[in-house]
Amino acid sequence: MLNHDFYLAWRYLSFHKTRSAILIACLSLMAFLPLGLHALLDDGERQMSGRAAATPLLVGAKGSSVDLTLTALYFSEAAAPAITLAEADLVGASGWADPLPLYSRFRIKGQPLVGVTLDYFDYRRLAPARGELPALLGDCVLGHEAAAALGLEPGDSLATTPENLFDLAGVYPLKLHVTGVLAQSGSPDDQAVFVDLKTTWVIEGLGHGHDQQTPAARHQSLPFAQAAAQLQVDARLVTYTEITAANIDSFHFHGDPAGYPISAVIALPHDRRGATLLKGRYLADDGTTQIIEPAIVTHGLLHNIFRIGALFDGILVLVGATTLLALGLVFSLSLRLRRRELETIFLLGCSRATVFKLVVAELALLGLASAILSGALLLAVDHYGESWIRQFLLS
Amino acid sequence: MITIDRLRFRYPGTPFSLDIPELHVATGERLAIVGPSGTGKTTLLKLIAGILAPAAGTIHVDGTRLETLGDADRRNFRIARIGFVFQELELLEYLTVLDNILHTYRINPVLRLDRRVRERARRLAQEVGLGDQIGRMPRELSQGERQRAAVCRALLTEPALILADEATGNLDPANKLRILELLFRATARRQTSLVAVTHDHELLPRFDRVVDFRGYHG
Closest residue of A to B78, CA-based? Predict the structure, then answer.
C-alpha cells in the first residue's frame, strides 16, 4: 500500500512539474543556504588560519593590516602600498629573522603575478609537478589552478598585460617563458604565476634590455672626436619584449636596487626572542613600515566574518520560517484546488488516513528531492569551496 | 438486493428532507430514478452507498443493514460491493487511463492489486473500446471515452450493485446509448443491480422500472 501512495504521489508531482520544481527549489535553498554558508565559513576559517599560522611575521607599508595580510598571503587585488627592497635587507641584517620579499602588484590574464625569490618555494613547500622552477629572468612557474585557467604547460609562453594601452611611453609587455607547473598545494599559491623578483621589476619598467646605442659600436672607423659628435639616441631604439639567451646580457637595471618596490617581506624569525626583538624594532619605528602577525589579523578578520555569519543565520531562520509558511499556504491552497479529486477518491472508498498518507508521500518525495539537490549543492561547496574562497580573497 | 424501509434523512441547517416509506430493488434489476433537481435523487444514492447515514429507518443492501455499520465498515462495504458512475466522479488528470481504472485498488488497503486485476482492467478497457488508449492521459480523450473509462473503473471491483448518477448527462446520443449498453451488459453478465439517476427520458424505456422521485421529497 505504501508503494501505491508513493506511486500516486510521484505521478501527481511529475504531472505538475513546474509546481513541484518550485517547491523543491524552495525547500533545497532553505536547507542549503545555512548549511552551505557554514561549510564555506568553516572552509574559509581553516584555510585562512592555516595560511596565517604558516606566516609568522609580515613587514609592509603602514596602513591597513588586513590589506597587507591579504596582499602578502592571498595576493589580493586590493594591494597594500609598496615598500622597498631595503626593508628586506634590514630584516636580514638584523640577524633575528630571514626575509622573504615578494611583489604581487601585477595581474596576468586575471591571475596574480607574484615576484619572489627561490627561498619562497622552499618555505611554502612548493615543488614543480611538471618542469622546473624559474631560473632565469623572464621565466615563470605556474600554480596548479593558474596553469589550468590559462591552459599552459612548460615550454609555453604568455605575455604580461600593458597597464595602460594609451600610454605610448609606458612599459612594453614582456613575454614570459613557462618553465614549470607547481603541484597542487590547496593554497592561494595554486592561483599565482610566480616569477623572479627581478622579472617583476622588468615588467614595472625599472629594468630593460635593448640594442646597443654606443657611438663606439656604430662609428668605430671614425676618430674619437667625430664619434663623440655622433653621440645621440637613435629613434629606432628597440626595447626587447622577450628575454632570450641572446639578449639576456643586455638587460640591466637603473638606480639603487634597495629602492626597488616590493609588496611585503615575510619575516621568518630564528626564535621567539628574535621575533620579539624584531617586533620591538617596528614598534619603536615611526617610519613608513609596520610589522604584523598574520595569525592575529586573520583571527580578527574571521571574528568579524563569523559575526556577519551569525547575522546571516538569524536572517536565514526568518526567511526559512517565512518560506515554510508560504509553502504551507501553497500546499493547503493546492489541496483546495484538488477538492474535486479528493471528493472522487472519497467516493471510491478512500479513507482520510489514506488521503493523509498520500499527502505525506508527496511531502516525503519533495523532501527527498530537496535533500538530494541540497546534498549535491553541499558536495559542490565541499569540492569547490576552497577554490571559491581563494578566488573571493583574490578579488 | 436493496430494501429501504421508512427512511428519513435531513441535511443539518437546511430545510431539505427526504422521506422514503418503502423502496425495493431486486437482484439484477435495472431501476431508473427521475425527478426534478433538488428532490434528493443523489442523496438517496449516497444513502444506499453508505456515504451518508439516515436519521431514521433502515437500508438493507445485499443482506447488510447499513445504518448499523460504523464509518470504516460502511466504507469497506462500499469498496467491496458498490460501483460508482457519477457525473462528477472525474478521472484524475495526472494518471493514465489504465491507472485511473486501477485507482480504486491503489487507494483502498482492503483491495489487492495483483496481476489478475491488471489483466481484468485491460480486458474491460478492451471491451469498452479503449484497448489502445490505456496509456493515454484523460485530457487526450473525448468526453465519451472518459466516461467509458469511468465505467471500467466502477466495474473493475465486480460490484454487486452499480449506482449511476447522471452517467450520460454530458454525452451525445450515440455515446449515451453506448454507456447505457455497457452498464446493462455488465449487470446482465453478473446479475448486478443498477440504480441510475437520469434526466434522459428517451432512455427510460430500456430500464426494468422507473421511479419518479417527486413523491419522496418532503
Answer: A349
